[in-house]
């Protein structure tokens, strides 16, 4: 049986459509990632877009909960490091990557909570599930990218692909969907195990997600 949450009559547009908005923003960020090697401004826009995404996820978390407080701490750290980097030119790429990984993982967990918790709309539950699915692909893609940067040659890459982030997010998405075109393949033991694990996680997530949605719509 479906469980829905009543909202105040004056609830704003973001409150009633927050996961749909966050899903649209995440999709735009993934698409924008493909332009980072063509336009110098793409990285800057992606950085601030990711900041808005993190703020939106915190806003979508239930008020006065421990989870919201836990998520708010790295968000504050994220904005503080961005300001330090922009105002004083400090190199904080490594620290930003760590905080981003924490926030992405936390955002994924929060989106998964919507699959089992009460919501005001089943469409919002659907949006939060797709949001979490895309986040899994993004997180795995960032892991692949960092492995290749730390240990070049961990992946068999086309000649026109260097150490950009976007090809690894793409590889993650086609692995997640078990498409496997084959132009990028793991060449070391760790990425091979990770790609196999991701394929299993992706398949299980789709099965569980569809089961939850269909079960609640009955």
Automatic annotation (TrEMBL):
Residues 168-215 form the Potassium channel domain. The chain crosses the membrane at residues 12-32, 38-57, 69-90, 96-116, 128-147, 167-184, 196-215. One of its GO terms (biological process) is monoatomic ion transmembrane transport. Keywords: Ion channel, Ion transport, Membrane, Transmembrane, Transmembrane helix, Transport. Signal peptide: none annotated. Gene3D superfamilies: 1.10.287.70. The keyword Ion transport applies. InterPro entries: K_chnl_dom. This is Voltage-gated potassium channel.
């Amino acid at each position: 049986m479906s469980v829905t949450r009543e909202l105040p009559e004056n609830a704003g547009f973001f409150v009633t459509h927050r996961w749909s908005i966050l899903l649209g923003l995440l999709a735009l960020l993934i698409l924008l990632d493909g332009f980072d090697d063509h336009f110098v401004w793409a990285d800057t826009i992606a950085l601030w877009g990711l900041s808005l995404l993190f703020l939106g996820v915190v806003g979508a978390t239930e008020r006065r909960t421990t989870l919201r407080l836990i998520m708010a701490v790295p968000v504050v750290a994220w904005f503080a490091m961005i300001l330090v980097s922009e105002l004083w030119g400090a190199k904080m790429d490594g620290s930003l990557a760590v905080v981003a990984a924490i926030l992405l993982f936390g955002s994924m967990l929060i989106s998964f909570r919507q699959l089992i918790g009460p919501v005001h709309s089943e469409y919002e539950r659907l949006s939060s599930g797709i949001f979490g699915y895309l986040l899994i692909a993004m997180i795995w893609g960032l892991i692949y990218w960092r492995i290749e940067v730390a240990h070049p040659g961990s992946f068999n890459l086309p000649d026109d692909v260097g150490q950009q982030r976007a090809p690894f997010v793409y590889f993650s998405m086609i692995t997640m969907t078990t498409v496997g075109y084959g132009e990028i393949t793991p060449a070391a033991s760790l990425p091979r195990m990770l790609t196999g694990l991701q394929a299993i996680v992706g398949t299980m997530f789709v099965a569980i997600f569809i089961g939850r949605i269909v079960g609640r719509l009955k």
